[in-house]
Design a protein that fits this description.
The chain is mainly alpha-helical. It has 7 helices and 4 strands, in the order E-E-H-H-H-E-E-H-H-H-H. Helix 4 packs parallel to helix 7 and helix 6 packs antiparallel against helix 7.
Amino acid sequence: MTSEPDTPAARGWDQATYRCGRCGAAYTVTTEEAYLQAVGVHTDAHAVWDRLNPIERDGFTSILRTILSAPELGFELLALADRQQNTGGDTSSPTAVLGTNTPQPDCQGGLVAAPANNTFTALSACFSRDLAALISEEAPHDPTPNEFIDLVARVRDAVNPVSGDLMDALTELTEALNGPADDQREQLARARIHLRNAVEAVR
């Protein structure tokens, strides 16, 4: 009776390189199991990417860069989601602000303090599609802060009854764009809360 070889090389496997014909990605692996995993994960990534529109891709990529650059933030977000599901409540506060420990992605995928334009981009990625759907419009692609504010205003004018959250969000967004830089982070954080509440209420 012979025993089964213990090493990958003894089983006839040395190493192989997987190359994707769609995007050119290449992964060199040393076991058959790793090869199959690399192929499966990469194929799944393409399947997810193909289902997203350009706006969703930008927002999804921004979120992933933030989470992967700060793993502890990912754990906290999951814990927060679990607590909300278990209690059926909302852990947000109308006075919550983005603190120094809340990173924002920059154009290169790093983490920086939250300047207004970057945070406007994040807000737009999160809410443009849902807001545009409420008034049967196509979501704008990479809108400027002014264009995003105009979208929120159009939704406010179309929603009946009038949404107090949308009115408050417009106030916060406009003041964040035109007011002192020192106040922008807090104003945009409040605008995010009002936008989320408004979209959830109208759905």
